[in-house]
UniProtKB/TrEMBL annotation:
This is Zinc finger matrin-type protein 5. One of its GO terms (biological process) is RNA splicing. It comes from Chelydra serpentina. It holds the Pfam family zf-CCCH. Residues 75-102 form a coiled coil. A zinc finger (C3H1-type) spans 51-79. One of its GO terms (molecular function) is zinc ion binding.
Length: 167
């Protein structure tokens, strides 16, 4: 049977050899699927710029359908869609300008507080019980929804299992 190549963009597999792989990677179906995948992650400003430069698709505006679909060289966005997209772009720009500072209650704040507590613990040997209590950063999901790697250690630390071998 031999090795098989699976293309994540096209969701199909074929026998893996140089000829088949080149033929697939240069094929129209693969190139369209790859473009569609990367278009999912384009920012709103780039989409708006591209859609504004295109003329509206007459068939899509008249019937609501176009035979070319995503491959149409004309825009399938209505004026309302363009206005919504423009508002989204403006909102993103405003949030970037205003949100240059780190908002309160982030993981960075928590790490700074933790570093201060640890430095106090090293300088002062008589720690209060409050400083030893494990605290989650504000804004985190409920404790039961956290993965085990982010949950607090049990009181007294993790048990050491006898005859435990890693690897």
């Amino acid at each position: 049977m031999g090795k098989r190549y699976f293309c994540d963009y096209c969701d199909r597999s074929f026998q893996d050899n140089l000829h088949n792989r080149k033929k697939h990677l240069n094929g129209v179906q693969h190139l369209r699927a790859k473009k569609a995948w990367y278009d999912l992650f384009r920012d709103a400003a780039a989409v708006l710029l591209e859609e504004q430069s295109k003329k509206p698709c007459r068939k899509f505006l008249q019937t609501g359908q176009c035979d070319f679909g995503f491959n149409c060289r004309f825009s399938h966005m209505t004026e309302d869609d363009l206005e919504k997209l423009n508002a989204q772009v403006q909102e993103e720009r405003r949030s970037k300008e205003e949100g240059a500072e780190v908002p309160a209650g982030t993981v960075e704040d928590w790490l700074e507080k933790r570093a201060k507590r640890l430095s106090l613990a090293q300088s002062n040997s008589s720690l209060t019980e409050k400083m030893l209590v494990f605290q989650y950063p504000p804004g985190w999901p409920p404790i039961q929804d956290l993965p085990p790697s982010l949950q607090a250690p049990p009181p007294g630390g993790w048990p050491v299992l006898p005859n435990l071998q890693w690897g």
